[in-house]
Each structure stands twice: as C-alpha cells, then as structure tokens.
Amino acid sequence: MTQPVNASPNPAPKPVASAVSPQIRQVGTETAAQPQLTTEQMARAKGDDTVARLHEAGKPTATAPRTRKAQLRLTRLDPWSVMKTALLLSVAFGIVTWVAVFIVWSAIGAAGVFDNLNRTVNEVLGTTSAEPFRIEEYISTGKVMGFTTLLAVADVFIITALATLGSFLYNIAATLLGGLEVTLASED
C-alpha cells in the first residue's frame, strides 16, 4: 500500500470532547462547538444512572425517595457575623417589646382599669380633700413608654454583647472539644 508523501504513518489524534465539558471549549486558538447533549447523556457522564434507567425503561418507576445523611461538625462561629445577626435580632426584639407594651397599656386604659383603681384608692384612703387620687399622675403613658424605650435600647446592647462574647467562648470550647456535631438529612 502506498502512502502519500506528506502523510505520517501515525496521524495525531484529534481531541475528543468530554460529555460534561462546557458547550464551547478552547482548542489552541480556535474554538470548537460541541453538539448538544441529551439529559440521558449528561446523566451517564456524571455517573448518575437513575435518569438513564428511567429513560431506557420508558416510564418512571415508583420508588421511595432515598434519604442522604451527612454528619457535620460546627467548629467555628465568626464573631463579626454573630454580632451583626444578634444586633438585628435584638433591634427587632426591642421594637416588638415597645409595641407590645404600648398595646397592653392602651388596652388597660381602654378597659377602665385606671378609673377603677383611682376609685378604690380614694375609698380606702377616705380622702375628702379637694384633690382626689389619680394614678395617671404617677404612672402615665409617656413615662411607661419612655421606660420601655430605655429598656429596649439597653437590651439591644446587652444581647448583642452577650451573643458576641458567646461566639468567642464557643470558638475556644470548640478548639478544645471539637465543636457540635450536627446530622443533616436530604431527601432525593
């Protein structure tokens, strides 16, 4: 058999595109487009034969979903992340506290509790002076809401500081003891 003059006996093999490579790949300075892969071909290339078996069978089979479990260990908490999260949650807690106190205080006032309390104190003390006892002079809505605001702001600082300190302490304990073990499950 005769060979052409310029041909070598063993021509260089052409690069073969893998089934999981991107749609267009770089070969030297030229680009070569790959053909579109079917779902079955991609599944076989990834080693997942479930889709391939379903495609071959022609209809889906009724199998129970498998549960995958992973055991993870929480070894470090980022103090900056904990501080930001604790700050946000404590601000939300402060707002909820303020609104709850306002609603409860308004409901108590609307129910007539203060009027009944004033009448009871006047009867017990038996004051006949021109000025009757009024609890609103001592415990008014403005004073209660001011105290609630002060308490909510203090809680924001205290909760944020304690959570951040807790993350530092957890990191030290996790270094010594290994951290918390968590088991996560996922159904396929």
Can you walk me through this structure?
The protein has 188 residues and is of the alpha+beta class. 53% of the residues lie in helices and 13% in strands. About 11% of the residues have low confidence.
- Biggest sheet features: 2 strands, antiparallel
**Estimated share of beta-strand residues:** 5-15%
Sheet with most strands: strand arrangement: 1-2
Average pLDDT for all residues:
77
**Helix/strand class:** alpha+beta
Helix content: 40-55%
Per DSSP, the total helix count is 5
According to DSSP, the number of beta strands is: 4
Radius of gyration: 37 Å
Distance between the termini: 59 Å
User: What's the assembly state of these chains?
Assistant: single chain
- Poorly predicted sequence stretches spanning 5 or more consecutive residues: 14-33
Q: How would the global form be characterised?
A: elongated
H/E order of the elements? EEHHEHHHE
Highlighted features:
188 residues, alpha+beta, two-stranded antiparallel ribbon, 53% helix
Tell me the layout of helices and strands.
Blueprint: E1 24-27, E2 30-33, H1 39-46, H2 49-57, E3 67-74, H3 79-110, H4 113-125, H5 141-177, E4 180-187
Antiparallel strand pairs: 1-2, 3-4
Helix pairs in contact: 1-2, 3-5
